[in-house]
Amino acid sequence: MLANTFRTFCSMAFALAVATSWAAAPGTAAPDFTLTDTAGKPVKLSDYKGKFVVLEWTNPDCPFVQAQYNAGAMQPLQKEWGAKDVVWLSINSTNKDHGEYKTPTQMNAWMKDKQAAPKAVLLDSTSATGRAYAAKTTPHMFVIDPAGKIVYNGAIDDKRSARESDRKSANNYVRAALTEATAGKPVTVASTSPYGCSIKY
Amino acid sequence: MPRFAIALAAALASVFVTGAALAAPVRTPHVEAELVSERTAFVPGQTTTVALRLKMADGWHTYWQNPGDSGLPTTLAWKLPPGMAAGPIRWPAPEALPAGPLVNYGYEREVLLLTDIKVPRDAPIGETLALGAKAEWLVCKETCIPEDVQLDLVLPVAERADPYPQWSKAIAATRDALPTAAPGWLAAARGDGQKVVVTLTAPAGAPTPTGVHFFPFDEGRIEPSAKQTFAREANGTFVLTLPVANQLAPGFTRVAGVLVAANGFASGADVPKAIAIEASLTGAVVAGPKPALAQVPALNVPPPVPAGEGLSLLAALVFAFLGGIVLNLMPCVFPVLSIKALALAAPGHGNKQKLRLEGLAFSAGVIATFVLLAGMLLAFRAAGEQFGWGFQLQSPGVVTSLAVLFFVLALNLSGAFEFASLVPSSAAGWTAHNPVVNAALSGVLAVVIASPCTAPFMGAALGFALSQPAALTLLVFVALGIGMALPFLLLSWFPGWRRMLPKPGAWMVHLKQFLAFPLYATVAWLVWVLGAQVDNDAVVRLLVTLVAVAFVLWAWRTYRVGASRAYSVVAAVGLAATAYVAWPLFAGTPEHDAQTSASARATAGAGDQWQAWSPARVSELTSAGKAVFVDFTAAWCVTCQVNKRLVLNDAGVRDAFADRGVELVRADWTRRDPVIGQALGALGRQGVPVYVLYRPGKEPLLLPEVLQKQTVLDALATIDGGAPKAALLDHRTR
What we know:
The complex is a heterodimer of chains A (201) and B (734). By secondary structure, chain A is of the alpha+beta class. Chain A is built from six helices and nine strands. Chain A has helices spanning 2-21, 63-70, 74-83, 104-113, 128-133, 173-182; strands at 34-37, 42-44, 53-57, 87-92, 120-123, 137-138, 140-144, 150-154, 197-198. In chain A, strands 2-1-5-4-3-7-8 form a seven-stranded mixed sheet, with helices on one face. The termini of chain A are far apart. With 734 residues, chain B is an alpha+beta fold. Chain B has four domains: 20-176, Thiol:disulfide interchange protein DsbD, N-terminal domain (Immunoglobulin-like), CATH 2.60.40; 186-285, Immunoglobulin-like (Sandwich), CATH 2.60.40; 313-395 and 419-508, no CATH class; 592-732, Glutaredoxin (3-Layer(aba) Sandwich). In chain B, the strands form five sheets. In chain B, strands 14-17-18-12-13-16-15 form a seven-stranded mixed sheet, with no helix packed on it. The two termini of chain B are 52 Å apart. At the A-B interface, helix 1, helix 5 and strand 9 of A face strand 11 and helix 6 of B.
């Protein structure tokens, strides 16, 4: 009985230590993952070591995401930085049982309709990757450097609203972080509170 | 003129007289919104309070000034006549609203967001003024919808204003309850790496706040879903520990926010439930760890009201002491202790002094073991483990070990073997020559064999003890130990009772053999528990293990009493076979438990009208406006089984559930399940049984641990109106 309890305790302590060391804060290592994209292909983060990677948590049913795409704010970022060899991965962590869950076909159709240009759209229907990054909202953005370190974690921009009209005047944190990081400079604003809809875990 | 026409005319006239505008509320699919006023008119030069009234559809919420993990605060953009000025929104204290593993801060049902309006001195008396405001909010349930509406409030300017009949009371009550700095409460804050430690000094005579939760005014300060702690220090101050946000915003130099307590911050009626605190931050903070995003966030839901006040320390100690005495009569303990006591009566057992020493050693063993158990439990809970009392029966390995132990003890009482014959005579002689050590070890054994009985019969009481401060918890366990040791101690202290026994003889052997049967019964019960915990294969595995144990004992004893050495080899082979058969029952790792518990929960309710429990299922049903009854239970919990058979399965009770369309949900804690553990903790309980009735539009009801048919029927009657009877209201939750 003692041994059994002790074993539980030790494994909990170990798990806690591991979880803490994996905190997805700026400057820490980005947790690796393998997710299936909407074309059915596995995508592994560590395969992109040596390149900048953007993770965009998204959900087509979320008005904050819609505001970004309807205002045409997200797509140019994807195109502009995609052309500069930055790997843009859009991740949907909506739980499979939730009403807002989208199938790969539905995700593709929506992305096509919005003329979005991520490198890949990944489905995280168990929410495991979302949890590993402690992603909270849609959108919630991460920028990862070629060494696999998180250099930006937070909101898409500084206008905390779901209005399309605010997007033009908003200061986009991801653009700023990519501009600095790809120029080899430290990121000035490396962490902000994300805003948006809660991720449907 | 028909009577209703007169009434209508009178109503219209009164509107013209008071000048109050009848602006209809604006309705969106999920929100009803309007601007309402505390007073019927604007008085030049005075300040008056108006409110944005938001009434959300069932299950939908809007947000506080800091929305928490997600969401957006409600905003008001005023369009005012010249000279008029509107202050900022004065926010009522929010609620912590879980969204899966995330936590948001906001309002459900209805909220009045207050704004003070300054009326200019030169406002023309007799005319009307129109306030316009664009209100924007995000309303969320499973999905989020941003909405904005244009609202107006038109009131006359007059020399004096009356309370607006419909709203003045509600607005005044909301204003009185606004979180403000409370007299006598002083806060100091110190940054300590990944946490902020707030020390609160209470005014003299203030009660201990319970169910405390801190809501920071700003985002990027405190991690919404991480656990906050609140404790009373020896010097009477309180210490609130707040986890720093993972995405720490720069410039965290002041700790400012709302502190909410279930019982308020002063004695008496109408005490403030929420106060504002603000303190400059000394020391340094760094960004906190990534939030765990557990299945259920670690919210400090107010614990049951009677805790502490309801049961005094003295009463808790007396109950524990009596419970300890009663433990001696439990089927798992009584046979073993009886034999131990009878051994005292054996002729030539030793002199009076030695007997007393043995009694004391036994008592020390019992008490020390109880304290050790309680200490371990407290340590695990401090480490964040979801253990309640009864945890000892949640592991198949422990159940198996206990079944084997009881089986061996029972075989011994049946006369299948003597312990002395199993061990080398030197060892047997050693315990015989060290009766004090032997007695202390007996005390340890007594507590171990009592453990399957403390869980089923005393789980609720010991769960209460565990909800108290650590020192008090240990004291309660000491009292339990004293109670349990007392009968044996008395028997050894006053050996006079021995004279009343019949002469030692055959009756003692018969009694001993008879006492084996309660132990066999305990084994049968443990086998049933294991079956409920794992599956039929595990039951067979345990039964085969028991057969193998009996075989090993037989072979070893045969060898020990002088048979061929071959028997020792047979015993060794048998022992290896026993280990081989039993091993899988011990091999279930905690990780494995965590994985299987979700599926176990999913199948727990199968087969009858009871559905399997999950936090999501309950919130789904309650937000659909259904009444939900949740039965937190476990196979090893005898109280639970009695309640189930006598009350919950009673035809009358079942009919009452069906009549009112109550959804029945069962959470089975037979195996360790951290999600259920957290849910129990959130209800202020540490063990099963727990019965909760969620009533649409009302606070959930916690029913007593020992159910009566009438209690359940009375509780059900409160679903559609009627105050619950005071006796029934065991505790109220948030």
